[in-house]
Amino acid sequence: MTPKQKADFAVIKFVAGLVLIVMRKFWFTSAAVMLGIFVLFWLYGGCLALLLTLIAFSGIVYQISDQLVYWPNFPPDSRVLVQPPSSMGLPAENLYLYARDGTKLHAVFVKQASGAVKSAPTFIYFHGNAGNLGHRLSNVYEMYRWLHVNLLLLEYRGYGLSEGSPSEEGLYLDAQAAINYLKTRSDIDQNKIIIFGRSLGGAVAVDCVSRSEISSRVAAVILENTFTSIPDMAKVLFSNVKFLAKLPEWCHKNKYLSKYKMCRVVVPTLFLSGQADSLVPPRMMMELYHCCASPAKRLMQFTQGSHNETWKCPGYYQVLLHFLDELFQRTTQPPVLLPGVVCFSEPQIL
Fold first, then answer.
1. Which of 174, 207, 232, 277 is an active site residue?
2. Model-level pTM?
3. Which of 44, 63, 156, 281 has the greatest number of C-beta atoms within 10 Å?
């Protein structure tokens, strides 16, 4: 053993002896300290294990959130069978568009008779969750017949015949591709483009018109039974599972923070709210209405309107028609409301 090792060993021996003397003299205090150290270690270990478990669970929820939010395979044949507009007697063009990231998207352009295409307003129709554009044709047919509009129907990535997988950022790119496509058409009035979004499609529509480069290119937006955000919806859907309901915003992969984006929406806006909606609480539509920065906005409430079938309520298409008449200055008369329809409007109407 070298002299240095001997010196180190002597120091260790001295310290150990000193510790033993102290422990013998203050055995109770020493035992309490040792027990405290053990309990503290156990508690910290348990807390750490719990923290790691929560982080892991949050990560799992984050990764599978796409499956929780999007339902492109419901009904089961939605990805292989898309009913064409021609089955409803609607004249239409079958299209394939490309998003900025290269994703191939299926779309359909339903147009008025050749003499009316140019003068008619054009709707960009963003559908709700689940299914494909074929499941919306009954509603589209009534819009075509009542409102005399052209309609561009888009299937988001991962829905219907479109390629890819759905994601929040992906759906925003899809919507932008649809808007950019309409700008290439010389047979429509570029000053009469209106974005329509229902449920999930409403969140996509809000994102579009909250962007200045897009809002300057559209005449108005129509939102039906949409939500304030995905975290807010989680609180509603998982109200009985407190842990899931209280997950912080950053745990959600898909957020669709419409309530924060509404302060940037300045185009004329029509809110269509079904008061019998059992999925998205109608109060969310009221909140979006109050958050909207547009000086020309209106909230129409349909007493019997459910989440997916507000469009079947009496007065629905009359409300839309009057909105278009006001928007394009075809009339200044107030809408004639049927029973079961309630109107909220800003002092400065459209």
1. 277
2. 0.83
3. 156
